Task: inverse folding
């Protein structure tokens, strides 16, 4: 995208619609996450999930740090992934 | 003429005991944890109260035991919809703990061994409404229920009663805790059914 001078500008978030729909359609249990706390990497299928509380809490099996939290409420689903420094979605 | 059918509400509530909306009565004591149970030795246990100026007041286990002990019997209401009536505890009122703490703060962020946090107005910790409890039903509080010591704030949903309590930070501004960051209600009054943000 360019402005009238030919310089590149940014687009709004709607530009993420197509690319992110492909990402979040992925089976996330095969995604490989890196723990922000200890840097260990493993598929999400191998993390420890605590599901008896008010929401789902996924923890690193190595250091017990919280990797991901998911709460479903009447307003929608709340997802926090700040405990993952990156996620690889394998082809 | 027969009485009106009240509809199905799960198990019948005990006569004369009030149940908040959307709750059912349980006789057991469910364990709901968001992580592994910390094993905290009373020899190293410590409670810190940190004021908005950074002043820190600390109590060891022996310090806690030397304070006036109270024995509240209270009803518990969990946001996952179970309520438990008539639970008996022993511990120290927050009025006693905070009596000599100088603060102009309006809010508290409670921290726990294991990293859990929850926030509430400071006023809800005072006035005979909250305790640091270490004994349940006459026995030392089991680690799965928050032992050696947990916060007990029974007039709010039980996620506010932090297990394995470690610290209370007094703050001028509110700051959401572990579940409050993720869609749960900032205050959590079971009688007004404040489960989620917007309730």
Result:
């Amino acid at each position: 995208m360019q402005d009238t001078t030919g310089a590149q500008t940014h687009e709004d978030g709607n530009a993420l619609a197509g690319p992110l729909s492909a990402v979040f359609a992925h089976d996330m249990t095969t995604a490989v996450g890196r723990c922000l706390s200890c840097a260990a990497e493993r598929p999400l299928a191998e993390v420890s999930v605590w599901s008896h509380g008010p929401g789902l809490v996924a923890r690193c099996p190595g250091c017990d740090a919280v990797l991901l939290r998911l709460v479903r409420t009447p307003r929608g689903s709340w997802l926090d992934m700040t405990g993952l420094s990156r996620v690889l979605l394998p082809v | 003429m027969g009485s009106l059918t009240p509809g199905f509400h799960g198990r019948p509530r005990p006569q004369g005991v009030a149940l908040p909306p959307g709750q059912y009565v349980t006789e057991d004591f469910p364990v709901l944890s968001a992580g592994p149970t910390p094993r905290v030795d009373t020899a190293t246990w410590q409670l810190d109260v940190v004021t908005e100026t950074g002043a820190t007041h600390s109590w060891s286990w022996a310090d806690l035991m030397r304070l006036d002990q109270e024995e509240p019997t209270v009803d518990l209401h969990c946001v996952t919809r179970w309520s438990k009536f008539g639970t008996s505890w022993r511990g120290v009122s927050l009025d006693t703990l905070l009596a000599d703490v100088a603060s102009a703060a309006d809010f508290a962020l409670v921290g726990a061994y294991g990293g859990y946090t929850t926030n509430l107005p400071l006023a809800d910790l005072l006035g005979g409404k909250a305790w640091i409890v270490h004994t349940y039903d006459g026995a030392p509080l089991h680690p799965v229920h928050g032992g050696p010591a947990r916060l007990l704030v029974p007039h709010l949903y039980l996620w506010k009663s932090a297990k394995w309590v470690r610290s209370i930070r007094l703050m001028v501004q509110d700051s959401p805790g572990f579940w409050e960051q993720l869609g749960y209600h900032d205050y959590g009054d079971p009688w007004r059914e404040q489960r989620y943000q917007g309730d």
Q: What stands out?
A: Chain A touches chain B at residues 50, 52-55, 57, 59, 64, 66, 69, 71, 73-75, 78, 80 (CB under 8 Å). DSSP finds one helix and seven strands in chain A.
